[in-house]
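Board work, copied verbatim: molybdenum cofactor sulfurase-like protein
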Amino acid sequence: MHSPCAREASEACFHNLCHLPFLGIPEPQSSTSTTTAASYRHVFEVSMASSIYPNSQFTSHESFPSLQESFSHFTKTFPLYSQTDQADKIREQEYYHLSLSNHVCLDYIGHGLFSYSQQGCYSQEATVASASSSSLPSRRYSSSLETPFFGISYKAANLHSQIQYGSHESELEYKIQKRIMALMNLSEDDYTMVFTANQSSAFKLLADSYPFQSNHNLLTVYDHENEAVKVMIESSKNRGAQVMSAEFSWPSLRIHSGKLLEKVRRRRKNRRGLFVFPLQSRVTGARYSYLWMNMARENGWHVLLDACGLGPKDMETLGLSLFKPDFLVCSFFKVFGENPSGFGCLFVKKSSSSVIKDSAGTGLVRLVPARRPSQISEGSANEDTETEEKAKQELHDDDSLQGSSSGPMSRQQTSEKTSELEEIKEISPKHKAPEIEVSVASFESSQSQIIASSGSGYSYLECRGLDHADSLGLILISARERYLINWLVNALTSLRHPHSENGHPLVRIYGPKIKFDRGPAVAFNVFDWKGEKVDPAIVQKLADRNNVSLSCGFLHHILFSDKYEHERARVLETRTGEGGTVLNGKRVKLDSGISVVTAALGFLTNFEDVYKLWAFVSLFLDADFVQKERWRYTALNQMTIEV
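↓ predict structure ↓
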């Protein structure tokens, strides 16, 4: 791990109190580091406000500067941005598909394991393997069908047994686990790691295994609707938990500290429970102090740190040797901009593992090495039949040896293409967690045809995506993302409708605006010239047509003080869902909040990406843009989409 000095510096860096000279702005003279940090923040925010053109407002998409002009002015304002060009070189060499496709990816959350060039190596080898077959016509094996790098298979081991006894792991699993532990800055002496299908599976596993019967409370800190949190809440309620949520003050959407502190310090016998905490909002980019974790622990809570929204190097900033959460969840995808499939990881602190109880929850997975493309041969045409017979024989052998059998289990949906249920195998729990493995792809059952060994020589098994993040480092990645996200916020807020009173703004930002200490995500909405919000789903669809990938989110738990109470009805919208009150004979649940468009930046995002998003949003300055798009789409004789 790190020395005490390094830990302190790391913690300070998370709050952006170090490495400030890298900003590329004049260094103010100050006698104290605190004053210097505050001065840097102020100078940065003032400089960013003029990073497009001083006091500029744009009322037409045809009037604002070109990409070259904008980038030139940006680099003149922040000359040291050019020192992040190592990220551009990595993108050019390893992720060249982003430029070839002219596509902007602002909808990825998590950590990328591999590079596109690695996937290209796999596809090329698959093509050669196919061409070498004398009896089959040549064809290119799609990466989505052949599952490059690895596949996943579900196992019905529960979390308690997995933590208590462990299980046999392949060389592939061992190497990836070791690499992830290093990335997350965690020690194997302190934490046990298990693979899960995704973030939601990890949250549900923990909710199913946590003793809510004795530790009655679940307290979450999310300014947005999160599918994994919804799953956890539903599961915990079924087990008797009392659910509470932090509230966020309008309009800043900062945590209402007084109310959260009151919930954390509840003076009741049953105040203990599970405190679920992200260090930043993956929707608004708001950052929260990790001191909340320490405060929760001091008041008897177990702490789950949600690291899914953090960047690949952000774990270095946490000072986890001082603030070690009891549980930690993160997620990984295969290739940025190309293959979003992957897995989740749940870390359980060994000193807290005794709290995990036996349960019937599922969601644990095994990583299955992909079959070597060169092994696709003449016999592939008969592979399905052979696999089925092999599975039947294995099941028969298991039944004969162990005197038991297991039926098919339900599987969660994955982004991989899956085949029918093929393999059911029961493993003796003598020194391992009892488990049932369920294969999710027909070729994965051929365990003899894998590329798991280190001597295979196939570079695409390296976690090159993680290596790229390591080579760039925390300081460079943080500075790059800080420049770009703040420039984007400034650019979006500079757009104004031409003929509205007082230059009605086209875009509204929710959460932090131009701010030194903010995460690389932004939540916003587009408004027409009459001040009416354009449906975020429409914005997302039109963005996709313009080769820009965005996400939609739903902000909730918003608290309006008396000063802003008059804005409540205008700002909030109500959604309905199952499980609430009875309305017109149907049980519905009313949720109040704000639907938004959200964009997330990563270390591979460049200036051109954020400029293209700005250029796309500016199209809404044309009052007829949405209608024109509807006509154009219909004229192309394609299926009409409601926009």
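Residues 464-493 form the longest helix (30 residues).
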